[in-house]
Amino acid sequence: MPASPTQTLALEDFLKLPYLEESPAWEYVDGVALQKPMPKTRHSFLQKRLLNAIDNSSNQYTALPELRCTFGGRSIVPDVAVIAWNRIQINQAGEPEDNFTQAPDWTIEILSPEQQANRVIDNILHCLRHGCKLGWMLDPDDRSIIIFAPHQEPEVCRGDRQLIAIAGIDLTLSAEQVFDWLKIDRR
Q1: Across-strand partners of 156?
Q2: How many domains does the chain contain in total?
Q3: What is the number of other CB atoms lying within 10 angstroms of the CB of residue 142?
């Protein structure tokens, strides 16, 4: 049975829960296990396009969907975790280790209608406090992207305002271009 939002547990116990890897993802914040909402169609379209755009813009970084990142007393699952290739631990078989125990270099969250924005922002800020270089929160309903950078005020981007990416990723996008990915041409 899934943990209730009022049940507190240790991080080690959370990581042993039998349903932890069920979809949608479970996160651990402040001693509480919380399940993310199930992604909807717009969320999935944006996530897919972001993954492709980032991967096609850099050889130094990779963009990974729904990667569990356990660090700083939390276990979170960003919609997109961008990580430098040289930070990915490799096992003896030459494959990536299953457990990623650091903050991503760049965390991207796509707000779902059922999601609480403050919980999402709290996870982005946690990432920044632990070495993350950049955070984005996309709000499809508002067609805006909030950019979070260490030691800076968040910036709300709409329309043709250019978005910033981390050094090593040659990505030129505006908020309008990102949300235009949702338009489907059926010709």
Answers
A1: 146
A2: 1
A3: 13
C-alpha distance from residue 99 to each of 68, 70, 93, 105 (Å): 7, 8, 15, 16
Residue 10 falls inside a structural domain: no
Q: Which amino acid is at 82?
A: V
Task: Name the residue among 144, 139, 172, 177 with its Cα closest to residue 158.
Answer: 144
How many other β-carbons are positioned within 10 Å of the β-carbon of residue 71? 17
Q: Which tokens go with 20?
A: 């932890």
Judge whether 13 lies within some domain. Answer: no
Domain that holds residue 85: 37-180
**187 burial level (CB within 10 Å; 0-12, 13-18, 19+):** exposed
Q: What is the CATH number of the domain that holds 138?
A: 3.90.1570.10
Does residue 169 lie within any of the structural domains?
Answer: yes
Tell me the average pLDDT of the chain: 94
Residues 80 and 32: beta-carbon distance below 8 Å: no
- pTM across the whole model: 0.93
What is 13-37 written as a DSSP string? HHTT-TTTTSSSPEEEETTEEEEPP
The fraction of the chain above a pLDDT of 70, given in percent, is 96
Does residue 66 carry a pLDDT above 80? yes
Element (H, E) at 70: strand 69-71
pLDDT at 16: 94
